[in-house]
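Sanity check

After download, print the first record. It should look like this:
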Amino acid sequence: MPGLLEYSAGGLGLLALAALESLPLRPLLLPAAAASHLPRRLGLATPLHLRHLLAGIVSALFLLSALFSARHHLSLPTLAATALFLLYALAPLAPLRAPLPLPLLDLVLAAAFAQELLLFAHRRPSTAAGSENRYFDLFLVPVAVCLVATLLAAHDPEAAPPRLARAAGLALQGTWMVQMGFSFFTSAVAQGCALHAQSRVDYTIKCRTHDDYHRARSAATLQFNGHLALLVLAGAAAYGAAVSRRNQPPSGYRMLSKEVQMEGMPLHSQF
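Expected structure tokens:
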């Protein structure tokens, strides 16, 4: 199904971006020709060109999908949002005389997240009664997290907490987008509800009765809580692995026994 494929591909791309965003800090390694156009103090989780290259690919795919559906008015806000994300991805590689500062790049990304927030907040008219609206309402939570984290990163580009919060928001966006694809375009749709599509971008999930509609909304909330719990568990596991690895002694070294440690010490210091 085209809808399932698009949602799954977009979700996996966001998960890959979240993984790059959460990597430990290390210096940027770039060719001299490209490095002359970039800030000197980058301090990012991974080489900047790799993260921006992946962001550009994901944004370009969303932009192509929106252009393919440009005859529908619902795709016009998508064009604006994806264009901002693509601008953020390509801006550091532009051959400018002066490098773009990191706070400016984060402000462009914040504008893209703000546009995405408006896109999903006003995707449907207020009179629409489809259960898919519950999924899009819950999608606003990770988008808002990314927006706030990006604004904080613009204030201090080298601070780790805003980047980690943005990585968590991107990861939750990715998993929830995959969930929406399966919930909308497969048999996993809530019992008593079915997909009614007028076009590839104009669809709704209609339920037979009022009880079916509330059951579908409750199922969406339960699924979102499951995704959030999975993200917390994954983050705790990653943090525990990082802490245990940091506390391990370097390879080739071993702890001395207590007797060896006390050899050569002055007699008065052994008591």
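If your output differs, re-run the checksum step. Summary of this record's structure: Confidence is low (pLDDT under 50) at residues 25-45.
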